[in-house]
Design a protein that fits this description.
The complex is a heterodimer of chains A (about 425) and B (about 575). Chain A is an alpha/beta fold. Chain A contains 13 helices and twelve strands. In chain A, about 50% of the residues are buried. With about 575 residues, chain B is mainly α. Chain B has a domain of about 170 residues. Chain B is built from 33 helices and seven strands. Helices cover about 55% and strands about 5% of the residues of chain B. Classes of the chains: A alpha/beta (about 425), B mainly alpha (about 575). At the A-B interface, α7, β7, α9 and α10 of A face α14, α25, α31 and α33 of B.
Chain lengths: ~425, ~575
C-alpha cells in the first residue's frame, strides 16, 4: 500500500508532477482529469458542513403552520401554507410543516427524498450565548470547554487511512481555521484557491518558487523539509487542476455571495479528486433580533442564499452526488414568540438540513410538540428533542463509513435517529 | 540556593557564567541562543552587542525589565486609548447592541425602525456615534493589536514582552467572545504585563478578578443556586474547571469532578463591577437592598466585585481542604492553595520549558525548575534563572529547535532588518494569513506551543510569500532600508548581496552551503533584468518603476537586494529560532 512517503515519492517521479501533465495539451489533461487524475483519491466520500452562525430561526425556516399556538406567538411573522393575501406562502411539506418560500430551491430534492430535515435539534447545554454554543457544537463536547480538537478533525482521524495522506483531506473555505477543524489532523483553511501558491508576477515568480522548493528540500529540519515537499506538491496539484475561469457543470448558477463562492470552490476541489473528505464553510447573519421579515426581508434573503447556494453546488457536482453529502448546522434556535421589534431572540432548538443520495429524505425527522407554553423549554423556547450529536454522529459515521466512532463525540453514547438509509 | 543570591546581587558580586560550554556552544552561539529564546528577533549586530555586554549581564537586565523605552512610548502615542481603564474604554467604544439600545432609549431612532442592515439605520448609527464622540469597537481591537506589534518589535524590555505573550496564552481570553472582548486590552496591559515576571499566585489572582476572564469563562454570572427563584440562574462551573485543568494543576493534576463543582461554589459571587451600563446593574440594586451585615461582606476592588448575597455560604471541600463560610477569602485561599501545589509547579514549569527550551523538555530540567517554583513561592525570575543556569538549556541540540510562530516570524523580520513599522495592521494581516489570528483563538487552552501546529501545508507557502512581501512597505506595512543595512556599500552581485544579508540575518549559518543551494538563482541568466521586469509586480512599490526610470541602477539594485532578502526571510533557516 501507499505510505505517506510513498505518496510524496511517486508524485516526485511525475505521477502527478508537472513533468507528465505538462507534456499533454491542456484540453487532453482536462478531459482525462476526471478518471485518471489522482486515482488514489477518487471515489472518496465527502461531507460538506455549513455552519449558520448567529442561530437560525428554525421555526421560520420550517414552520409548524397547523399549530395555533405558533400562529398566535408570531402575529406579524407567521406565514401560512394556504394562499393568503399578498406575498408567497409556505411550501407545504407534509401537511404539518411548511418550508419558507425563500427555500423553494430545496423543494425538488425534498420531494425526491434526498433532502432530510431534523427539527427540534440542539444542544443539551442550555447556554444562549452564541460564542459558547458554537464552541460546544464545534468541539462536540457540550459541557467541556477545554477540548482541544473539533469534531470534524476527529472525524478525519477516524477515517483510518493515514497511509495515503493528502493535504486536501480537510479543507475549510474560511479565512482562519474553524474550531470544528482544530486538532491533530492536518486541515487547511483557504479563503481563495487561486491564492494557494507562491505569489508574485513576472519571470522571477517561477524562479522564486523553484528556489524555495530547493531550499526546503535540502534543509535538515524534518518538519520543514517534509511539510515543504507536501506544500509544493499540493500547490502544483491545485494550480495544475485549477481551471482559470471555472465553469460550473449543468449550468449551475451560484449566488454571488460569500457562501455561494465558497461552495463553488468546494465543488472544484471535489472534481479535482485531490482527496477531499471533509469540507467546511459558513453562512453569516442569522441573528435576527430585528425586523426579520416574512417572505421578504433579512430572513428570506438568508434562506434564499443558503438554499440556492447549496442547490447550485448540488447541481454542479451531479456526477459526484453519490459520494457527497451536505449538512447544515446552527448553534441554537430562536424564541417561539416574536419580540418587541419584529424579530426573535436567542432560544434553544432549531432545525437542520441534510442533503445526499443516501439520506432518508423527504421527511421532517425529530419531534416538535404543540407550542403550548407548558411544552416549551423555560416556558419560551422550542424544546431540544434531538441532541445534535445523535445526528452529526449518525451522518458522519454512515456517510464516511467510520468503523469506530466512539471518539467522534467522546461524551456521547446515544443512538442515531435514522436520518441515514440503512 | 546560594547561586540565586549571587545572581540577584549582580553588580556587587560577580555572577556565575551560564554553562553554555557544557552544552557544546561557543560564546557567539550562546549569544544567538539567548537572543532567540528571550527576544522577538535579532541580527548579527545584536549578537555582537550581547557578547560584548556579557550574556549574564544582558539576561539579568532583561529579567529586571526596567529599561527606558522612550522610542516605544513615542510610537505608542497614537494608540493611547488602548491603555485606558475599562470604564473609559466601554464608555468610548460601546458595543453595537448597546448603541442600538441607547439610540432607542434616547429617542434618536423610533423603536420599530431598527433593521440594523438598512441604510437609514446605518446612517443614524454613524451620526449618533459622531455626536456622542463614540468610536466603533473594532477600532479599539485594531489599535490594541497594533500596540502588540509595536511592543514586540521595539520594546527594550524584550523578555517582559515574551513573558506577557506566554502568560496571555496560558490565561487565554478571546475577542471572539463579545462579552469579554472590550476588557482584553486592559487585561493584557494591567493584569498580565505587570505580573509577567512576578509571582505566579499574584498573576493568577489578578486574572481571576479581571472582567476579561470573569466574562470569558462565565464566572461573572455564577451565583448560588436558588431553587425558588424564577430565573434559573445558578452555578457555572467553567471557570472552576479551567482554573484547575488549564491554569494550575493540569489535566492530570489529580482533581475530580467533585472538586470542580465545589470550587465553582467557592467562586459564586465573584463578578464584574457594573460600569456604564455593562455588566449586571441589578447587582448594585440588590446590594443596597440587603441588610448591612451582608453588605459589609461585599468587596469591591477596581473592576472586580464580590457580591456576598450571590455567594454560596455552605461548606465546601476542594482537594481535601475545607472552605467554610468565609466569603471572598474562600476563593483567594483556594487560589493561594492551588498556586503552591507541586502539580501546579510542574505543569507551569513544563510549559515554560517548552516555550524556552524545546518542544519536549528534559524531565530533570523541569523538576529542577519546579523545585525552585515551590521554594520561591512561584517567583518567575527565579524559575527562569534556574532554567538558564542549567546545562540542559544550553544543549546544542536546542539551538534552532523551536519553530517561530507566525507572529514571531513577522516581528523577527522587522527586528532583524531594523524596519520601521508604518502600518502595524498590515503586518497583522500576514500573521493571520500564516495561521495565527492573534487574540482570536477561541478555546481557553490558548495556541498550542508545538512546532507541528504551526508548520503545515496551508501555512508554509504563506510564510514564503511573507518573505517575498516583507521587504515591500506596500505589502507588509514595514519600511526597510536595505541599503542602509549594508552601510551604503552596495553589493555588486546577487551573490555578494546574499553573503552580506545572510551574515546579518542568519549569523551562525554556513554561508557556503546557502550559496550552493541558491546557486541556480544566483547564476540565472539575466537575473537582474528578470527582477527589474517583475518589480512592478504585486509585492513591490508602484513607484519603483517610475523611480527606476529616473534613477537607473540604484533602484534596480535595490530590487535585487529585496529579492535576495525575501528569499532568506522565506527560507527554512529563518523559520526557526
Amino acid at each position: 500500500m501507499y505510505t505517506r512517503r510513498a505518496f510524496l515519492k511517486s508524485s516526485g517521479l511525475g505521477l502527478f508532477g508537472i513533468g507528465l501533465i505538462g507534456g499533454i495539451p491542456a484540453f487532453v489533461a482536462e478531459a482525462v482529469a476526471r478518471e485518471k487524475n489522482n486515482p488514489l483519491y477518487s471515489k472518496r466520500k465527502v461531507i460538506v458542513c455549513i455552519f449558520q452562525r448567529g442561530a437560525m430561526d428554525g421555526l421560520m425556516a420550517v414552520s409548524p403552520f397547523e399549530d395555533p399556538y405558533f400562529r398566535e406567538a408570531r402575529p406579524t411573522l407567521f406565514m401560512d401554507a394556504a394562499k393568503s393575501g399578498s406575498g408567497n406562502n409556505l411550501i407545504d411539506l407534509d401537511g404539518r410543516f411548511g418550508l419558507h418560500p425563500g427555500m423553494k430551491a430545496f423543494e425538488t430534492v425534498f420531494r425526491e427524498k434526498r433532502l432530510a430535515i431534523v427539527h427540534g435539534i440542539g444542544s443539551p447545554n442550555t447556554t444562549r450565548s452564541h460564542f459558547d454554543a458554537q464552541d460546544y457544537m464545534e468541539s462536540g463536547t457540550p459541557f467541556r470547554k477545554n477540548t482541544t480538537s473539533g469534531w470534524l478533525n476527529r472525524a478525519v482521524g477516524l477515517l483510518g487511512h493515514d497511509n495515503v495522506t493528502t493535504p486536501f483531506s480537510a479543507v475549510s473555505l474560511t479565512p482562519s481555521l474553524p474550531r470544528s477543524l482544530y486538532g491533530d489532523q492536518a486541515a487547511l483553511a483557504i479563503n481563495d484557491l487561486k491564492n494557494f501558491k507562491i505569489q508574485g508576477r513576472g519571470e522571477i515568480l517561477n524562479q522564486n518558487a523553484k528556489t524555495f522548493e530547493d531550499l526546503y528540500d535540502k534543509t535538515k529540519n524534518d518538519l520543514l523539509r517534509d511539510t515543504g515537499k507536501e506544500s509544493f506538491e499540493a500547490m502544483k496539484m491545485l494550480q495544475r487542476n485549477l481551471v482559470k475561469s471555472y465553469k460550473p457543470a449543468n449550468n449551475a448558477v451560484y449566488p454571488n455571495s460569500s457562501l455561494g463562492n465558497s461552495l463553488k470552490q468546494i465543488a472544484q476541489l471535489v472534481k479535482m479528486d485531490v482527496g477531499l473528505e471533509v469540507a467546511f464553510t459558513e453562512s453569516n447573519g442569522w441573528d435576527t433580533h430585528f425586523n426579520q421579515g416574512k417572505d421578504t426581508g433579512i430572513f428570506a434573503r438568508n434562506v434564499g442564499d443558503l438554499s440556492k447556494s447549496i442547490m447550485a453546488f448540488w447541481t454542479d457536482i451531479e456526477a459526484y452526488q453519490d459520494d457527497v453529502l451536505v449538512m447544515t448546522m446552527t448553534e441554537f434556535g430562536r424564541t417561539v414568540h416574536q419580540n418587541g421589534t419584529n424579530g426573535t431572540d436567542h432560544g434553544r432548538a432549531s432545525c437542520n438540513f441534510i442533503l445526499g443520495n443516501h439520506v432518508d429524505g423527504g421527511k421532517v425527522h425529530g419531534a416538535v410538540d404543540m407550542l403550548a407554553k407548558e411544552n416549551l423549554e423555560d416556558g419560551r423556547d422550542l424544546r431540544v428533542t434531538t441532541d445534535f450529536r445523535a445526528v452529526f454522529s449518525e451522518v458522519a459515521t454512515s456517510h464516511l463509513k467510520l468503523k469506530d466512532n466512539k471518539m467522534l463525540f467522546p461524551d456521547w453514547d446515544g443512538k442515531g435517529i435514522g436520518v441515514m438509509k440503512g | 540556593m546560594a547561586t540565586f543570591s549571587l545572581y540577584f546581587t549582580y553588580g556587587q558580586k560577580k555572577a556565575e557564567r551560564f554553562p553554555y560550554k557544557q552544552g557544546g556552544l561557543s560564546k557567539e552561539q550562546a549569544a544567538i541562543h539567548l537572543l532567540s529564546r528571550f527576544t522577538y528577533g535579532y541580527n548579527s549586530n545584536d549578537v555582537r552587542d550581547v557578547q560584548k555586554e556579557g550574556l549574564e549581564k544582558w539576561f539579568f537586565k532583561q529579567l529586571r525589565a526596567g529599561q527606558g523605552d522612550e522610542k516605544l512610548e513615542l510610537l505608542l502615542e497614537p494608540y493611547a486609548d488602548v491603555l485606558m481603564d475599562n470604564q473609559s474604554i466601554v464608555q468610548k467604544y460601546p458595543r453595537g447592541p448597546r448603541v442600538r439600545r441607547m439610540m432607542i432609549n434616547e429617542g434618536f431612532i423610533p423603536k420599530d425602525s431598527v433593521d440594523n442592515r438598512s441604510k437609514f439605520y446605518k446612517a443614524a448609527y454613524k451620526k449618533y456615534m459622531e455626536e456622542k464622540g463614540y468610536r466603533p469597537e473594532g477600532e479599539l481591537f485594531r489599535k490594541f493589536i497594533a500596540t502588540k506589534v509595536l511592543r514586540a518589535a521595539f520594546s527594550a524590555n524584550q523578555l517582559q514582552e515574551v513573558m506577557t505573550d506566554f502568560w496571555f496564552n496560558h490565561f487565554n481570553v478571546s475577542f471572539t467572545k463579545p462579552q469579554s472582548a472590550p476588557y482584553i486590552p486592559s487585561y493584557e496591559n494591567h493584569v498580565i504585563r505587570p505580573y509577567a515576571l512576578g509571582k505566579f499566585e499574584n498573576l493568577l489572582l489578578a486574572t481571576a478578578k479581571s472582567p476579561a476572564m470573569l466574562f470569558y469563562l462565565d464566572n461573572a454570572s455564577s451565583t448560588v443556586e436558588r431553587p425558588k427563584s424564577k430565573n434559573k440562574k445558578g452555578i457555572n462551573e467553567n471557570y472552576a474547571r479551567e482554573l484547575m485543568e488549564l491554569h494550575t494543576l493540569g489535566v492530570d493534576g489529580g482533581y475530580t469532578q467533585k472538586d470542580v463543582s465545589e470550587a465553582a461554589r467557592i467562586f459564586t459571587g465573584w463578578t464584574v463591577y457594573p460600569m456604564n451600563g455593562y455588566g449586571n446593574s441589578n447587582i448594585l440594586k440588590n446590594m443596597t437592598a440587603t441588610n448591612n451585615k451582608v453588605k459589609n461582606q461585599n468587596i469591591v476592588d477596581g473592576d472586580f466585585i464580590f457580591v456576598a448575597n450571590r455567594h454560596d455560604k455552605g461548606r465546601k471541600v476542594v482537594l481535601g481542604q475545607q472552605f467554610n463560610n468565609n466569603g471572598y477569602n474562600e476563593g483567594a485561599d483556594l487560589i493561594s492553595y492551588l498556586s503552591s501545589r507541586p502539580q501546579t509547579a510542574r505543569f507551569i514549569c513544563k510549559k515554560i520549558a517548552i516555550r524556552f527550551v524545546n518542544d519536549k523538555p528534559d524531565e530533570a530540567l523541569v523538576n529542577k525548575m519546579a523545585d525552585t517554583f515551590l521554594k520561591s513561592g512561584g517567583d518567575m525570575k527565579k524559575v527562569l534563572t534556574v532554567m538558564v543556569s542549567s546545562p540542559e538549556f544550553w544543549d546544542k541540540r536546542n539551538m534552532y529547535d523551536k519553530v517561530k510562530t507566525p507572529f514571531e516570524l513577522a516581528i523577527s523580520t522587522v527586528r532583524a532588518l531594523d524596519g520601521q513599522i508604518e502600518n502595524p495592521n498590515r503586518l497583522v494581516n500576514w500573521v493571520t494569513r500564516m495561521g495565527e489570528k492573534k487574540y482570536y483563538y477561541v478555546a481557553p487552552t490558548g495556541f498550542p506551543d508545538q512546532s507541528g501546529y504551526w508548520i503545515n501545508t496551508g501555512s508554509l507557502l504563506n510564510r514564503m510569500n511573507f518573505g517575498l512581501a516583507s521587504i515591500s512597505n506596500k505589502a507588509s506595512g514595514v519600511d526597510i532600508d536595505l541599503l542602509e543595512l549594508t552601510n551604503h556599500r552596495e553589493p555588486e552581485s546577487a551573490e555578494e548581496a546574499l553573503e552580506v544579508f545572510a551574515r546579518l540575518l542568519l549569523p551562525s549559518t554556513d554561508i557556503a552551503v546557502l550559496k550552493s543551494r541558491l546557486s541556480p538563482l544566483l547564476t540565472a541568466q539575466n537575473l537582474r533584468q528578470k527582477i527589474e521586469k517583475s518589480s512592478g509586480g504585486t509585492f513591490y512599490e508602484k513607484t519603483d518603476k517610475k523611480e527606476n526610470l529616473m534613477a537607473k541602477g540604484k533602484k534596480s539594485n535595490n530590487a535585487m537586494l529585496a529579492q535576495v532578502v525575501g528569499l532568506i526571510i522565506g527560507s527554512p533557516e529563518f523559520q526557526r529560532r
